[in-house]
Amino acid sequence: MRLILLGPPGAGKGTQAQRLVAKHGIVQLSTGDMLRAAVAAGTPVGLQVKDIMERGDLCPDDIVVSIIADRIAQPDAKNGFVLDGFPRTVAQAEALERMLHEKGLDLDGVVELKVDEAQLLRRIESRIRQTLARGEPLRKDDDPEVLKTRLDAYRRQTAPLIHHYREKNLLRAVDGMAPVDEVTAAINWIFAKPKRQITSTKSATPQKTQTKLQKQKKKAKPAARKPARVSGSAKARGGRVAAPKKAAPKKAAAKGAKKSAKRR
Ligand code: AMP
User: How far apart are CA 3 and CA 13, in angstroms?
Assistant: First the structure.
């Protein structure tokens, strides 16, 4: 499973990413965490991005793209990954698409955590209080002024990705202001294993019944069937199929036939 969590800072991407990791045995790839580690270790990349991050601006695309390319190539990412904080620009999204394409891989979906910006500020303030209460050091960008810059960067550079992924029919929006467990449940529902897999484009009949039908087919040729409809949101769940419309009951059909015979 390969997916992206999209949403402004403080939307809860990190929390949901950790839950997806636990549920699906995939890895969380957070560019923010990787960049902070580089800053802490004083690597050349770390030195290059330190001030940018402290201001709340976005780091250069080529740096984050190369970090992600290295990380995706590692063995633990083979099982799948949840991208948290990447991509943040259309150029990064396109680089990711090229990267995955070269490996013959696809994205399963992009979850947009929709949030109210005024409430985000309150969330960040409460995060600051909790961090201080635990006696842990604050992140330099956990600051209301820096948050405004980060929200601005999100609106200008990252929000266009919503349109980008909607066009590709990969986007699924979730109410990020709902309680954490409800957000998790909504995400799990999106990526739930389909109860009925589409076995062919001609029929959505489950495998067992299909075998029976195939036997019957040999005796009588049934009327042609329309291909099953798959809704947009169902596509992300692996193609849950809408129930086919029931045919008119035989009795009613027979009655109708009698009536029209009388009229004649
Ligand atoms: P985060 O922890 O995801 O909020 O990221 C913290 C900071 O790291 C951001 O404010 C940016 O300065 C930088 N950063 C993280 N991911 C990216 C990215 N994909 N592109 C550019 N900058 C990033």
Answer: 12
Task: Quote the ligand 1 centre to 31 CA distance (angstroms).
Answer: 6
Choosing from 59, 65, 86 the residue with most ligand 1 atoms within 8 A of its CB, the one to mutate for a pocket test is: 59
Q: Nearest residue CA, atom 2 of ligand 1?
A: 32
pTM: 0.73
- Where does CATH 3.40.50.300 sit in the chain? 2-190
Question: Is 2-190 assigned to CATH 3.40.50.300?
Answer: yes
**pLDDT given at position 144:** 78
Residue of 4, 55, 62, 88 to test ligand 1 pocket, by largest number of atoms within 8 Å of CB: 88
Q: Which amino acid is at 162?
A: I
Phi, psi of 227 (to 5 degrees): -65, 150
Q: Does 13 sit in the ligand 1 pocket, CB within 6 Å? A: no
User: Which sign, positive or negative, has the C-alpha torsion 63, 12, 116, 134?
Assistant: negative
- Indicate which atom in ligand 1 lies nearest the CA of residue 56: 10
Q: What is the pLDDT of residue 173?
A: 96
Token pair belonging to 112: 């947009």
Q: Evaluate if residue 122 carries a pLDDT over 90.
A: no
Tens-place pLDDT, residues 183-211: 999 999 998 865 433 333 333 333 333 33
